[in-house]
Input
Amino acid sequence: MEWTGEALLIGVRRHGESSVIAEAMVAGRGRYLGLVRGGRSPKLAATLQAGNTVQLTWRARLENHLGSFAIEVLQARAAELIADRARLYLSQLLCEHLRLLPERDPHDRLLGMALELIDASPDAAALVRFELALLDDLGFGLDLHSCAVTGVTTDLTHVSPKTGRAVSRAAAEPYRDKLLPLPSFLTARGNASPDDRRNAFRLTGHFLDRHVWAARQSAAPAIREALIDILTQE
Output
């Protein structure tokens, strides 16, 4: 079996003395792993960097086998990412997030969002929306469109930490200390203050931890907190 496709490299790990197993998000195919023979050679070192866009040819005798990759770089980003700490952290976090997705299940919306984020100036609001989309694709999407108590669609100020549903200001008042703040930029247009950005990351982080990281007995990527510190500065 064989196919060729464009992909974002999201991880590489050693395999044997000279090879690596590359992990990539492939357009139309989702997260794929493949063996790259000789992948630890200096010749392939620049190509096999997470964050690069590559052309992959995957071959295997049977569809359910690991298979092998022939790989050609289309857009090398390593040098420019290393020169910009925020973009480097962002690329690393996005790759970690994409690795949470099930294998061989297409998620082209997330792939497209990740590529746009990597190639743009780091943006807190865009990253938060990516994390919301990730939760949605994993089956744990939040409902931020109407109040869970009254059904109103305006003046939504909080989110239930249990249900992931929005709550209006009036309905939230008796329970404010038990609810998560809902930054207004997530439900309406407008600029996000540093506090808004911090609350937005607190919101997505709560549900990623509850439904994904804790459920898999893992912790949030350490790089996430470092990136949040950069993106929530005044």
